[in-house]
Every structure is written in C-alpha cells, then in structure tokens.
Amino acid sequence: MHYLVIGCTLLALVNVSDNLAKTQLKVFQKPRFYGITTSKNVIISCSVPGTSTSVVVEWFKSPAYKQPMQPVSGSDRIIFVPKSRKSHAAIKIMDTVTEDSGIYICKANGTLGPGTELQVHRRGNLTLAIHRSKMKDAIIFIQGFLLVILICVPLFHFYKLEKKEETIYEEPEDDHTYEGLEIEHCGLYEDIPALSQGTEAVWSMESPDQE
C-alpha cells in the first residue's frame, strides 16, 4: 500500500514538473528582422535554452503580427534545418522572392516564439531611377514656369490698361475768359463771363513807320 502511494506521488510530481517546464519554456528567434532584396538566402534560427527534454519545432507564417498563421511547408527553396549546437531548429529560405515577405514564427513544444519579420524587396533599376529623377526635375521646372506666367500675365494686362487710360486722357483747352476785357468794364467778378461772350480779342501790331 505504501509503495502504491509513493508511486502515485512520484507520478504526480513528474506531471507537475512537466507542466511547469512547459509554462516556463522560452523560445528565442534570431534574427528578429530581415530586410533583403530578391534572389538572396536567409536563415532563421529557433532555440529553447535551459531545457533538457526533446524539442519539437514547427514553423508558421503570418502576413503581419497578430494575424492568422499558416503552417510553412517545405520545398526546394524552403528547407528545415535540424538541431545544431546553436539552435534547436532553423528554417532556410533560398532564392528569395517578394512573396516570401511576412512574419515567421517558431513553435517549440507548443510555445510560440516572438517571430521574425522578413521583408523582400525587388532590386532597383539604376537606369529607371535616373529617368524618374529627370522626369521629376522636368515637372518641377514646368510648374515653376507656369507659376511665373500666372503672375506676369495679370501684371502685364494691368500695365496695358494704365497706358490706355493715359492715352485717352486729353489736357483741357486754355480758358481765355479774361482775354480782351478791360478792367473798368467789370464791376463784379460775376460779370466777367457775361462780358467775355461778346468780346473778341483784338490783336494789333504797330508798324515802325507809325511812330
């Protein structure tokens, strides 16, 4: 009877220790981020330090963090690397393409790792980049030229209107109101216009022989 109790106690302790080991399991991934161009090779490692039990590793892929995951299937380009001294497992992606971008998550004994973000970009074309730069400069120049035209045209139109108004304007003729009047004929200032209407200016020149 005592042996049965001892056996059950030991079995319970083993189960508790296994559960504690699972809950305290920490999964690490290296590196945490990859930014590369196409046609490159990458390796993502997964390690579980401090564990003496066997580790079963699975790989999942997600388009972004906290998004649904899908299991990663092996192929000619995607190879699962077995346990080594530095890691319990790794995944190798060869000849990368843009579709390989995403979050790769290692799952070791039911515990998920932090994930590794992989971003694959296309290689830039130098000739195309130079052409785009020249096109951008040309567009900026055209925009500046149009802006100058929009500013100058109203100013030129306003200048032409001023010149036209100056041409239409004529100086008033000289007023000869007082011409031909004698002071003694004008009693008041108001009489000057009335007297000036019937008076013509008399111009005479004295000849030297008349003296």
Automatic annotation (TrEMBL):
This is B-cell antigen receptor complex-associated protein beta chain. The chain crosses the membrane at residues 138-159. The lineage of its organism: Eukaryota, Metazoa, Chordata, Craniata, Vertebrata. GO terms for biological process: B cell differentiation; B cell receptor signaling pathway. The keyword Glycoprotein does not apply. GO terms for cellular component: B cell receptor complex; external side of plasma membrane. The keyword Transmembrane helix applies. It holds the Pfam family V-set. PROSITE patterns: IG_LIKE. Residues 31-121 form the Ig-like domain. Keywords: Immunoglobulin domain, Membrane, Receptor, Signal, Transmembrane, Transmembrane helix. Residues 1-16 form the signal peptide.
